[in-house]
Amino acid sequence: MTFELGVYSFGNTPRLPDGSRGPTAQALCDVLEAIKLANEVGLDFFGVGEHHMRAMPLSSPTSVVNAAAAVTNRIKLSTAVTVLSTQDLRPFIERVYPMDEIQDAR
Question: Using one digit for the tens of pLDDT, what is the confidence trace for 78-93?
């Protein structure tokens, strides 16, 4: 039996000192940095969840995973939560396919 260790994120926007939420772009940068760190420290898996709210703005986890695959070299990457009932299946598969191809090429 093989044991693998991983984590996931919804890309939470940072809280600012005044209690408001930081920019969505910062949340995206933070999750990409977390994925790179997870790769560097030897975690086996990182999942990115889909959410549609200000506190968790990563509405396209496949885009995040594709970006992360380009800057990591060994960690397994995947969507952690995808709301299929809100997706047209063919475009979803077309977004996931490059994710597999990029990871296989690493």
Answer: 988 777 788 788 888 8
Compute the distance between CA of residue 28 and CA of residue 63 in angstroms, rounded to an integer: 10
- Among 43, 53, 52, 54, CA closest to 78: 43
> For strand 76-81 and strand 6-9, is the pairing parallel, antiparallel, or unpaired?
unpaired
Q: Alpha-carbon distance 92 to 63, whole Å? A: 11
Q: Using the CB atoms, write b or e for 79-94: b if 16+ within 10 Å.
A: bbebeeeeeeeeeeee
Mean pLDDT of the chain: 89
The answer to whether the CB of 30 falls within 8 A of the CB of 14 is yes
DSSP string, 58-69: ---HHHHHHHHH
Cβ proximity of 94 and 58 under 8 Å: no
